[in-house]
From TrEMBL:
Gene3D superfamilies: Cytochrome c-like domain
Keywords per UniProt: Heme, Iron, Metal-binding
Entry annotated with the keyword Heme: yes
Name under which the protein is recorded: Cytochrome c
InterPro entries xref list: Cyt_c-like_dom (IPR009056), Cyt_c-like_dom_sf (IPR036909)
Pfam families named among the record's database cross-references: Cytochrome_CBB3
Amino acid sequence: MRSVKRGFRRLSILPGMLVPLLLTGCEQDMADQPKYEPLEAAAIFPNDQSARPLVEGTVARDTVIEPRPARPPLPMTEAVLKRGRERYDIYCAPCHGRAGDGEGMIPERGFPRPPSYHTDRLRNAPDSHYYDVITNGFGVMFSYANRVAPEDRWAIVAYIRALQLSQHATSDDVREAGLEDKLREAK
Ligand code: HEC
């Protein structure tokens, strides 16, 4: 009686051995899925690229979409303009040029040339447009949201406004600012 029991016990090991065997079979199927490996060529796409570009407007799951304050929270003081110039020269001038004319060093080397800030369209664009371009990027220009803090974005906008004025001031502006003497001296 005892030996019969032992025999059964031995048999009951069998399914235990079968299951892992079956699972290995499955694993093989999963490895051979009909999918493209990273960087694998795919004749059905242009340039044989199986890696597809992100759909326009794709936002990463953890992206923080910051609400934009309705009005620039910074007063136009000399300190703000100085800060704006410093940040502008670091983050924007390499492409937009120190004068904002789009003649930066990077476009010289082949990056698409940005438009000059001294066109009617950009002169008339609201401050919020500049803030949004820095925050979200624009066309081929990427976002500077993770490099330029919101306060500094407004400081840069203030400085761009000063740049625009510097290239487009009327004699009325000069008179209002009480700078006629300086202008005469410069002539
Ligand atoms: C790497 C180069 C590069 C840098 C750096 C850069 N930009 Fe640009 N920017 C561009 C290009 C190129 C365009 C034109 C994009 C397009 O039309 O596709 C552009 C466009 C713009 C425009 C015009 C948008 C319009 O309405 O036509 C503004 C404003 C602007 N950038 C502001 C900034 C500011 C402010 C900074 C610094 C925080 C900055 N950019 C940094 C390359 C750059």
